[in-house]
Amino acid sequence: MTDVLMPQMGESIVEGTLTRWLKQPGDTVARDEPLFEISTDKVDTEIPSPAAGVLKEVLVEAGATVQINTVVGRIDDGASGSGAPAPAAAKAEPAPVAAAPVAAAPEPAVRAPEPAPAPVAASEDLGPISPLVRRMARENNLDLSAIPGTGAGGRITKADVESYLARGAQASAPAPVAAPVTATAPAPAPAPVAPLAAAPALSSADVAPVAPAEGAKVRVESMSTMRQKIAEHMVLSKQTSAHVTTVHRVDMTKVAKMRNSRKNAVKERYGFSLTFLPFITRASAEALRAFPIVNASIQGTNVLYHNDVNIGIAVALENGLIVPVIKNADEKNVLGLQRSIADLANRARSKQLKPDEVQGGTFSITNFGSYGSLFATPVINQPQVAILGVGAVEKQVVVIDDAIAIRDMAYLALTFDHRLIDGALADQFCQRVKSVLENWSEEVL
Questions:
Q1: Which of 16, 55, 337, 351 gives 278 a disulfide partner, CB atoms 3.0 to 4.6 angstroms apart?
Q2: What are the pLDDT digits (tens) for 132-158?
Q3: What is the distance between the terminal CA atoms of the chain, rounded to a whole angstrom?
Q4: Is-above-0.70 flag for pTM?
């Protein structure tokens, strides 16, 4: 019997949502055949079967969010001798997880009547509840069934719990005031207190969304799991890094000439188009070797200098964004980089990426120029300390040696973490990228 686990799809990912089973109990499955789909902030993809056999049981239903390495199903791989003990051993594993709240109560004499575990356990019919929300419910003795969920499919989020706690604090604050007043004075004293207690509740943030509903001119849709995770990841990045963006204009004329002279041959020989992106990736890899601090990350008060140059390339999806990683990008030439970019982008859009292809990045590049944008201020992909934004390559009138010329120009925008990288160093990095591109001499074929 083989356990099917929820994989970790990135170094910062602790949970994933199982969105759909591609096989049903009793179905035969081959090793590496797509078994189920998951969604996280880094990837929305199909997960292959770890073994060949028959899908024996499904332990996590579609739509549920569980922690990484959770057993979501089991495959009967034909090892009947170990078939019986395997489920028993597997069931023994989740037990400590489910029993974790109980283990945290070695003081039953004091906390015996604690109602927390019961509401959390009783909330299983509320849909997928993240471990963080469950822990908050236990710590605050909350009944999750009393909390309205605003997440996908009515899922209760961390913000819902915090909002509920805030409302509870407002509601409970006047109570001690009202009680003494009632005890020492006639009823008129608490009368003004009740309206005051009601006023903050009516002006709280959770009442605001009700207003647009009155017009009945809006359509409400739940965010996809990927969109929710992207939102959380972007907010976390802004809260973590001191974002600063520097923009440099680059003359791409030599690169454009090289590309134009080789793109037909590349398309005919290899079957993929030659774009500007691999040239910029090649130049970035060289600059990262020259300025290793841009290829680093921060861990507490330590700086981690990565030996490998692993460049993530942002890929736009129909319902979000994903950043697959080109490992050891500095060891590839333009043709190798273009092949990797095309392959990763195609498999990202067809949900065929593997877990290790969306983690381990040390630097990222986002090509918003493919949609006509001249420049933007991209958000750093944590735990990295910089991201390069590439604007559209356009012909512009420029002045060169006091003469007017028409050149292929583009803007490169480097967003960097000012906690670690100073402006002068960021500009030196950009100047190295600019120099490589403006003086391009490396052959493509």
A1: 337
A2: 677 678 778 888 888 887 765 666 877
A3: 50
A4: no
